[in-house]
């Protein structure tokens, strides 16, 4: 898996050497057609948080990122508990990422050709949700490898498909806020929700180390 990731990174680096222009010949999105100066950072953050559309998008997309982190963190233990081999369980984590890369690439091509960002994102959200529900049921049964594989492929492919589209929609609905500001907020919300989901699942599984860590952090914050 490391060699595959390294190969993709090297290929992307080599291809980037042939890029000699700062901007494409045509605007990449609607927000690039009219160039307006971005507001200062704090004003940009306030504008993002005051936008109801951005808040809904950030929570939904961030929740998807958090769910992926929680799933990736708990997938192998859950499968091993049902009798699946470590090789199969580890391979499912790799399959989740690889299928996601394929889905993100395909969705990017589709929205680039059609411009239907919202439609593609809504459909991908729905299918990813169904695949996630299917996976949550499949891991409760033993000797169902193809069910698990199909669910993981569906969740990875369509779950990752919404990520680049969601980031672009976040930029569009907060224009002229800097892209780094809106994108950074979405990623930050996703990581926070990911921590919450992982901690919650660990507590639900009776992980005493996580409980002790939370108690220690609570006492540390309480003394300040």
TrEMBL record:
Question: What is its membrane topology?
Answer: Multi-pass membrane protein
A GO molecular function assigned to this protein is: transmembrane transporter activity
Keywords attached to this entry: Membrane, Transmembrane, Transmembrane helix
* A Pfam match: MFS_1
Q: Could you name the Gene Ontology cellular component terms for this entry?
A: membrane
Compartments (UniProt record): Membrane
Query: Which Gene3D superfamilies would you find in this protein's record?
Result: MFS general substrate transporter like domains
Which coarse location class applies to the principal site listed for this UniProt protein?
membrane
| Keyword Transmembrane helix in record | yes
Do you know which InterPro entries this protein is assigned to? Answer: FLVCR1-2_SLC49-like (IPR049680), MFS (IPR011701), MFS_trans_sf (IPR036259)
Q: What parts of the sequence cross the membrane?
A: 54-72, 92-111, 123-141, 147-171, 183-204
Transport as a keyword of this entry, yes or no, is: no
- The protein, known as: Major facilitator superfamily (MFS) profile domain-containing protein
| Organism of derivation | Mesorhabditis spiculigera
């Amino acid at each position: 898996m490391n060699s595959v990731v390294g190969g993709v990174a090297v290929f992307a680096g080599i291809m980037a050497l042939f890029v000699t222009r700062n901007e494409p010949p045509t605007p990449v999105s609607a927000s690039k057609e009219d160039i307006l100066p971005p507001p200062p950072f704090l004003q940009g953050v306030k504008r993002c948080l005051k936008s109801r559309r951005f808040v809904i998008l950030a929570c939904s997309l961030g929740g998807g990122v958090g769910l992926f982190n929680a799933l990736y963190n708990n997938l192998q233990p859950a499968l091993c508990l049902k009798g699946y081999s470590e090789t199969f369980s580890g391979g499912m984590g790799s399959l989740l990422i690889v299928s996601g890369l394929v889905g993100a690439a395909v969705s990017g091509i589709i929205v680039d050709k059609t411009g239907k960002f919202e439609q593609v994102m809504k459909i991908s959200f729905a299918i990813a949700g169904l695949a996630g529900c299917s996976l949550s049921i499949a891991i409760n049964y033993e000797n169902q490898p193809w069910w698990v594989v199909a669910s993981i492929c569906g969740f990875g492919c369509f779950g990752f498909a919404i990520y680049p589209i969601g980031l672009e929609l976040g930029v569009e609905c907060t224009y002229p806020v800097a892209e780094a500001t809106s994108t950074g907020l979405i990623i930050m919300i996703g990581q926070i929700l990911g921590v919450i989901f992982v901690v919650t699942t660990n507590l639900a599984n009776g992980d005493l180390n996580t409980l002790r860590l939370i108690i220690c952090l609570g006492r540390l914050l309480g003394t300040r």
